[in-house]
Amino acid sequence: MAKLVVLKFSDGGFEQGFTVTLQIGEERDRPATEITGKLPPCPEITLYYTRWQASYLQLGNTYRLDADKIQVTNVSVTEDCHELAHILRARFNAWLQAEDFRSLREKWLEKLMPSDEIRVILQSENSQLQRLPWHVWDLLERYPKAEIALSSPSYDRVYKPPTPNSQVNILAIVGNSQGIDTQSDQAVLQTLPYADVSFLVEPQRKELNDYLWGKNWDILFFAGHSSSQGNGNIGRIYLNKTDSLTIGEFKYALKQAIERGLQLAIFNSCDGLGLARELADLHIPQIIVMREPVPDQVAQEFLKYFLQSFANGKSLYQAVRHARERLQGLEDRFPCATWLPVICQNPAQIPLTWDELIQSPTQEIPFTPIVNKKRGWKKLALSTLAVTTVVCGLRLLGGLQNFELQAFDQMMRSRPEEGPDRRLLIVTIDDEDIENQRRDGQVLKGTSISDKYLNQLLTKLNQYQPKAIGLDVYRDFPAEQLNLKSQLQQTDNLIGVCKGSDATVKIKSTAPPPEIPKERLGFSDFIDDQDRVVRRHLLFMTQETTSLCSTPYAFSTQLAFLYLSASGIQPKFTSDPSPSLQLGKTVLRRLSSRTGGYQGIDANGGQILLNYRASKQIAEQVTLTQLLSNPINPNAIKDRIVLIGVVTRGDIADYWGTPYGSLVNEPMPGVMVQAHMVSQIISAVLDGRPLLSALPPWLEVIWIWGWAVTGGVLAWQWRVLPKLALAVGISSGILYAVCLTLLIAGVWLPFVPSAISLVATVTVVSIQNSKYTK
User: Fold this and answer.
1) Which residues are 3's β-sheet partners?
2) Rounded to 5 degrees, what are φ and ψ at 620?
3) CA-wise closest residue to 306 among 362, 264, 251
4) Among candidates 226, 672, 635, 268, which has minimal Cα distance to 423?
5) Residue 696: which of 592, 614, 613, 576 has the closest Cα?
């Protein structure tokens, strides 16, 4: 069943913060869950929004705004608009990650599944809050069937009398069209099935008033110029070249139309939130408007996509989301087109579907064809092969890579908890540690730890005999203290870092600490994917000749070597089928040129998939200040690997996207990623913890084809849609469970191509079943 989520912003503001109430329940039922939290003050968010809005308005597009305000110049500020949109989105999501708001977020995640169809209603009187791009909230984007609507805290239900209709009655008002093309809007409306569309083209005020009083309308549509006035609380539409109206100037006719059953108003025009606020006072069930000035082509495409989806059976919210997301194809020319459409909802009303707007007096008895079985089985076999070929072809060309990686990340997050690795200890350097050093008069010289504090730290650590110490801090300058210089030279269990160069992407190298010999150095380079997420573990590579960092092994690899050497395990290389690293009986096999969802793996270097430890905390952690100023339990350090690294957000360059959080949302400090890498190696060698691998390509093809066959058999056995949908849902769940189970065991199976094959074959065979009859 569909879910209803309500976010109530009862009081406050950006200067004081907001009190927020979250309600979650089933559609058509009272909320089953309610929780209250707060959003902290964030006055700068309105500044970010204003900067983006100013850039957006400078684009110079032909907007459906007041005809006198249409811009005729087109100064390219597209890149600036995209950049400001990215900044606004990041800051907005950071605000919604606040600690006081976390309880609401966690309750949402607890009660709602990604497969749920969700209507989200945001209730607030704050017009600035309503203007923010809520659809880019990372929590909403996790739910592909969720869409948000705006609402006033004050509302009332209008009861529609029974008025049986065989068609959807639409009143289409085409206002002043100066500088824009409203013919496209009219053409789309004329193609709607089971619709009776009445067009009013540039009407006079009395003509519009008479039409609203004269018939039971289901949908009111307006195309033309409009604007919001009076601090965004008043909406004005331009009927013709001389006349314009506010909502208040024809509210009696609108109120009559609503009382007689008007369900939806669509204003395919500019800056519609003022229109929506006035219409909300009349308690209209649903309104669709554009929150900012809308380019003419964007308005046309949105209307086409929305009405196609809505008339073909999608719910109103799903049709709006579908149409809004399809606008992304226009954002190279019209930045932030997907930000414009917004639903304004009367919470007392439940949106009707297109079919529910039509109350047909008769229903046809469905005809069940008798299928020629022999011919059908032949078509079934050909269909499974055809679908498999298309899906594998798309996969080979990289068309499914992003979806496969997202599914991979979801499964990584779904694994059972493993707990922290007790062989590791992480010494973190945070903002307070840096400030303490400065108060002590220390000069940091562009790094995060001074010579004095580093010397104290190494001295204290070595007292308790760790097996390895990893200094994940760049020091490309000589030590000034003699004690530190000798300690860096003589600490045999210390591994330092440097960074390799990459001429192809113009990345410069960073030199190692000059006191640490080459054999005790490791490079800190990570490899992230196009979505800026680290999923691969680089073990070794051949450095460029110009690189200041000449070590062939990764920082994590060197630490693992040092730790395992105490157990008599030494590294060696195997050559079958390609050079791979072997530690004891464990072989860390390199990724091939195509592994799982990946394409084009760089052959220069030993890469394996990074099997992150499924733990909220990879290892025990202690801050620099805590370790230096407090007594230490010797067992917390003895025989462990100690990593030293920076976790301050000021060092944003050393934060990384992982399957547990993107670079914008919950990134991971580099030292934590290094800890996952070290843990992966030693856990595989000493504990037999599985490394991640994929099937050979030919086996993946067979696997995908097997699910195509499953889909074909389901469609052949179950012809009735509800039973077939249930069978497909159960099969998809089984597929996901199998893929997750095997991922936990160390095998990455192609979930997305298999699911597509299953559903596509069901669709194709179902269509065939309706055609091939005796």
Assistant:
1) 26, 118
2) -65, 140
3) 264
4) 635
5) 592
Q: Tokens at residue 653, please?
A: 């360059």
Q: Which amino acid is at 358?
A: I
How far is 72 from 89, CA to CA, in rounded Å?
29
Quote the tokens at residue 661.
Answer: 């959080």
CB atoms within 10 A of CB 488: 24
Mean pLDDT by 10 residues, the chain (774 residues): 90 91 91 93 92 85 54 61 92 93 93 93 91 92 93 83 75 86 88 90 91 91 83 82 87 90 90 84 91 89 92 92 93 91 92 79 35 62 90 91 92 94 95 90 83 93 94 92 91 94 78 93 91 92 90 94 93 77 89 58 71 93 93 91 88 82 86 96 95 91 93 81 86 93 94 93 80 44
Degrees to nearest 5, angle at CA 185 with 182 and 190? 130
pLDDT digits (tens, 9 = 90+) for 173-217: 998 888 788 888 888 998 888 899 999 999 999 999 999 998 889
Rounded Cα–Cα distance for residues 138 and 4 (Å): 18
Query: What is Dmax (Cα atoms) for the chain?
Result: 95
Overall residue count recorded for the chain in this entry: 774
Check residue 462 and give its pLDDT.
Answer: 93
* Interval 231-257: pLDDT, tens: 767 888 898 888 888 888 888 999 999
What lies within 8 Å, CB to CB, of 604 at 6+ separation is 541, 542
Scanning the structure block, which residue is given the tokens 């051949």? 542
What CA–CA distances, in Å, run from 176 to 64, 235, 254?
Answer: 10, 15, 20
Number of C-beta neighbours around residue 104 at 10 A: 21
User: For the segment 14-64, what is each residue's pLDDT rounded down to a tens digit?
Assistant: 999 999 999 999 988 889 999 999 999 999 999 999 999 888 888 866 665
Beta bridge partners, 324, equal none
Residue 146 dihedral angles phi and psi, to the nearest 5°? -110, 140
Q: Is 594 helix (H, G, I), strand (E, B) or coil?
A: coil
Pick from 227, 258, 257: which is nearest to 244 by CA?
227
As given in the structure block, the two tokens for residue 260 are 């007689």
Task: Give all domains of the chain, ordered by start, each with its CATH number.
Answer: 3-151 (no CATH), 168-357 (3.40.50.1460), 377-399+695-769 (no CATH), 424-687 (no CATH)
